TrEMBL record:
Name the record gives this protein: Glutamate decarboxylase
InterPro entries: Glutamate_decarboxylase, PyrdxlP-dep_de-COase, PyrdxlP-dep_Trfase, PyrdxlP-dep_Trfase_major
Organism of provenance: Fraxinus pennsylvanica
Modification N6-(pyridoxal phosphate)lysine occurs at: K277
Phylogenetic placement of the source organism: Eukaryota, Viridiplantae, Streptophyta, Embryophyta, Tracheophyta
Keyword Lyase: yes
EC number: 4.1.1.15
GO terms of molecular function: calmodulin binding; glutamate decarboxylase activity; pyridoxal phosphate binding
Physiological role: Catalyzes the production of GABA. The calmodulin-binding is calcium-dependent and it is proposed that this may, directly or indirectly, form a calcium regulated control of GABA biosynthesis.
GO BP of this protein: L-glutamate catabolic process
Pfam families reported for this sequence: Pyridoxal_deC
Length: 497
């Protein structure tokens, strides 16, 4: 841009952001700068750095919503300055939260009487929701043990080894022993029989996952409930169930309405769900619903009045924005049952397209199930030369973010890639991803065996009649030479037009 006016010493008169000294000179990275800069320069500097982030819609690692309708975006921006916790100042926002709690409770078949309000709360995500549910279980168990005159200092919780890390956080932060049911080959969720075997008098609850993070599979909550009912009758205990429906809570009611996993089962006392996953809201909203008031100890609820009227609160944080609550209400009334069902069916259909495309290559084993969260988890049939981690890394050349990870114990020898199918992942994108995966496989096949394997084996060779091992630097040079040749060959075939 041509400047029509000479700049002053402070560059106050410069209107071209990229011609200003604020872009030429770097700002201190970890200290507050001494002087102010123009708002345009601050915006441009940050915007330029953010360009190096990945494309959220091509981030196939995340379950979190990355697209909403423009009308909802407007509502979010209009309410971004409202503090969710200030119920007296923003009573309508509070009312919308209560409506969401009741809608979700009915969706989960909570046993509510006519005119009875559901018991639940909005959170910043399922992690906070799980912490709150876990605290309720722990306090109820402690109260029961104290009444019986028994020790209450060693609570435990039974889960599968496939649980999300927030369960480990809960156990560590709130001093609860985490008893994990190990996985095994071909069975990557919690075995209900083994889970019930691990239950003892100090178990505050058994946590079942409706939609495993690893492969999207729903755990068998119905069988777990039936086995636990029998054990409770035999022992006189009353061990309950919590369902972590972070991913599956907004899927099962629409795709599998006959599946019994929710409050239709008598031992299910609380359920969490992520509104920012298949609830179709941007990151920052989760929900936890209790079966009835008796399942949430009153002593965990705080009452404050310094913001106005008496306000009950049960959260780990205090202030937070109202935007996500309003966005959740928008989606619930905008889409309704019909809309959510159509979207979930579409996601499932696109998952099947991706699965079929991967199977057609003949190179992958499909680890995920057809029923469950719409995702595709898959592993290489032959990873002796190249690994899933290398496939994941090379897909980034095309902009795709596809995670590779190992399964938890005792299936840690299994490595998988996972693609989460969200609302904004179209069939065209699914077909394009398969094409790019095939390109990656072709490129990997032309490369020498992976560097790590060569470094580990340090192939032996004869030197002056004596068998010795190559040094690390020799192996590295060999690999570097092979890579340079590969790149040079690619350049010869890639013309510029």
């Amino acid at each position: 841009m041509v400047l029509s006016k000479a700049s002053s010493q402070s560059d106050d008169s410069i209107h071209s952001t990229f011609a200003s000294r604020y872009v030429r000179d770097s700002l201190p990275r970890f200290k507050v700068p001494e002087n102010s800069i123009p708002k345009e320069a601050a915006y441009q500097i940050i915007n330029d750095e953010l360009m190096l982030d990945g494309n959220p819609r091509l981030n196939l690692a995340s379950f979190v919503t990355t697209w909403m309708e423009p009308e909802c975006d407007k509502l979010i921006m209009a309410s971004i300055n409202k503090n969710y916790v200030d119920m007296d100042e923003y009573p309508v926002t509070t009312e919308l939260q209560n409506r969401c709690v009741n809608m979700i409770a009915h969706l989960f078949n909570a046993p509510l009487g006519d005119g009875e309000a559901a018991v639940g709360v909005g959170t910043v995500g399922s992690s906070e929701a799980i912490m709150l549910a876990g605290l309720a279980f722990k306090r109820k168990w402690q109260n029961k043990m104290k009444a019986l005159g028994k020790p209450c200092d060693k609570p435990n919780i039974v889960t599968g080894a496939n649980v999300q890390v927030c369960w480990e956080k809960f156990a560590r932060y709130f001093e609860v022993e985490l008893k994990e049911v190990k996985l095994r080959d071909g069975y990557y969720v919690m075995d209900p029989e083994k889970a019930v075997e691990m239950v003892d008098e100090n178990t505050i609850c058994v946590a079942a996952i409706l939609g495993s993070t690893l492969n999207g599979e729903f755990e068998d909550v119905k069988t777990l409930n039936d086995l636990l009912v029998k054990k409770n009758q035999e022992t006189g205990w009353d061990t309950p169930i919590h369902v972590d429906a972070a991913s599956g809570g907004f899927i099962a009611p629409f795709l599998y309405p006959e599946l019994e996993w929710d409050f239709r089962l008598p031992l299910v006392k609380s359920i969490n769900v992520s509104g920012h996953k298949y609830g179709l809201v941007y990151a920052g909203i989760g929900w936890v619903i209790w079966r009835n008031k008796e399942d949430l100890p009153e002593e965990l609820i705080f009452h404050i009045n310094y913001l106005g009227a008496d306000q009950p609160t049960f959260t780990l944080n205090f202030s937070k924005g109202s935007s996500q609550v309003i966005a959740q209400y928008y989606q619930l009334i905008r889409l309704g049952y019909e809309g959510y069902k159509n979207i979930m069916e579409n996601c499932q259909g696109n998952a099947m397209v991706l699965k079929a495309g991967l199977e057609k290559t003949g190179r992958f084993n499909i680890v995920s199930k057809d029923n469950g969260v719409p995702l595709v988890a898959f592993s290489l049939k032959d990873n002796s030369h190249h690994t899933e981690f290398e496939v994941s890394d090379m897909l980034r050349r095309f902009g795709w973010i596809v995670p590779a990870y190992t399964m938890p114990p005792d299936a840690q020898h299994v490595t998988v890639l996972r693609v989460v199918i969200r609302e904004d992942f179209s069939r065209t994108l699914a077909e394009r991803l398969v094409m790019d995966i095939q390109k990656v496989l072709h490129d990997l096949d032309t490369l020498p065996a992976r560097v790590t394997e060569k470094m580990a084996k340090l192939e032996e060779h004869a030197r002056n009649g004596v068998v010795v091992k190559k040094s690390a630097i020799e192996v590295q040079r060999e690999i570097t030479t092979a890579w340079m040749k590969f790149v040079a060959d690619k350049k010869k075939t890639n013309g510029v037009c």
